[in-house]
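User: I'll paste a sequence; please echo it back and then give the predicted structure.

Assistant: Echoing your sequence first, then the prediction.
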Amino acid sequence: MEKQKYYITTAIAYTSGKPHIGNTYEIVLADAIARYKRQQGYDVFFQTGTDEHGQKIELKAAEAGITPKEFVDNVSGEIKGIWDLMNTSYDKFIRTTDADHEKQVQKIFKKMYAKGDIYKGHYEGMYCTPCESFFTESQLVDGKCPDCGRPCVPAKEEAYFFKMSKYADRLIEHINTHPEFIQPESRKNEMMNNFLLPGLQDLCVSRTSFKWGIPVDFDPGHVVYVWLDALTNYITGIGYDCDGESTEQFQKNWPADLHLIGKDIIRFHTIYWPIFLMSLDLPLPKQVFGHPWLLQGDGKMSKSKGNVLYADELVEFFGVDAVRYFVLHEMPFENDGVITWELMVERLNSELANTLGNLVNRTISMSNKYFGGVVENKGTAEPVDDDLKEFVLSIPAKVDAKMEKLRVADAITEVFSLFKRCNKYIDETMPWALAKDETRQDRLATVLYNLVESICIGATLLESFMPETTEKILAQLHAGKRTLEDLKTFGLYESGTKVTEAPEILFARLKLDEVMAKVAERHPQVEETQEQPLEEENVIDVEAKPEITFEDFEKLQFQVGEIIACEAVKKSRKLLCSQVKIGSQVRQIVSGIKSSYSPEEMVGKKVMVLTNLKPAKLAGILSEGMILCAEDADGNLALVAPEKDMPAGAEIC
């Protein structure tokens, strides 16, 4: 039976400089999806690459004293090197300076012009060089680019324009009849309300003020506008030819199943790109997913801020799979994620070294200690085994459901819930106690077999996200790879197999102070001089409440709480209901923070909780405390959290 195709693309990376970890997140996310689709049995084609034309490149090359081609060769090579470092399994790396791409772009431009969709005119307006975008005065935000926030400059030049309005109604109808086309849904609403419904302006698709681009061959003074050039890579890379000579690969793979892009370029991919395809009489991609940003702890990564993190440096500290785990696990489905050195160390120690690494190491060590490394299923079952098996066998379907909706972070959480359940099983069965009883050796063997089998299932599910770790686990257990179909059955690990005699530590724990000392050594903070202008202090004055005595204050009890589960309160626009671990207890707390936090974003956070507040019902749900937040003048909320990692239940005093 022929495999079903799956064509996935990332946005092609702009060759203005080295990509930071936020840029790298996208290729790792796409790789995880592509690998999972392959596990499902799809014939996957995964394309990525580099976007290499435009005025910004021309300027940067001039600054560096080299030609634009030399400049993009260097940067494209660096980008490809990072993609390879992160173990991404792309099938095609396209460059927009590839000769076959450039030839097709010229033919596409000519075809659109002959069709009457492109016409010649003059442009006068505001231009953002970093974004390669024109804007009207009304589109600017505080006089700056609405996309990147940087200054725009007046520009006037002869240009070719694409008649966007010609296809606008058709695109609106497509979006309305294909709700899956733009995801998440909030991105769809933004495009419809901010751009399509108010009416599209014709789009400038050529430039004459610089030369570094693909020439319009019938009007050599013009080069093709970078977005028309860049977007067409999704079809030229798989063999599209607008003269009707497209390759079998194009016929097979188009339309794309998924364009994976950053939320900042969603307009280009859900408005301009579909309209270009309509002009070429080609079907639209099945889905465009605009993922959120991965931010540094103090905001969006920026070289000017000096807060940029790069994948290769993080890999030096933590290893490839640890970095893959972090960027995938910490990124919510719809809201921006946050990356800090401190959080990476915490996740490495708690999730990777403890939950996973220690589980594998303990299981192999006990197998060697008690049975010379031989793992046998003696069939001495107890009810606790059934509970473990039922839980383990339920995880593949849960992972599949999350991946189907591109909720990759949630899928990884499901996989790690399997490993956590295995650790609980060790506590329940206490192999060390069974080992002391000669009459219970068969029971001990069965327990260890169940652990090894569960780990094999978990390792198979982990492969899309952390492929090297999966290989290491299976190699130590001397287990073969399994298909996702195999995971419906518990007990496929061959009884009598001998595990490795020398288990490898998968993830070594790190000390935060040592890591931060190395970071400080590499990235010393630059002290501001007095000559630098002081930024206006960002403060808020609030109306003072009546004074209280110390005795009044002593009545309040504040503790650290860990959010272990959270869901939106139905029929409420403001409320989230969280299950909060405080010491050994779990409390239910309802909070009006839905505007600033998603339920998925809340899970795992440690927060400040007022624990002796009298329980009350909000929207019919009992709330047993209060989660504390800060609020700015615009109503934006920020959870109050301990600066350092503190255990759930720690008293705040």
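DSSP finds 21 helices and 27 strands in the chain. Residues 528-537 have pLDDT under 50 and may be disordered.
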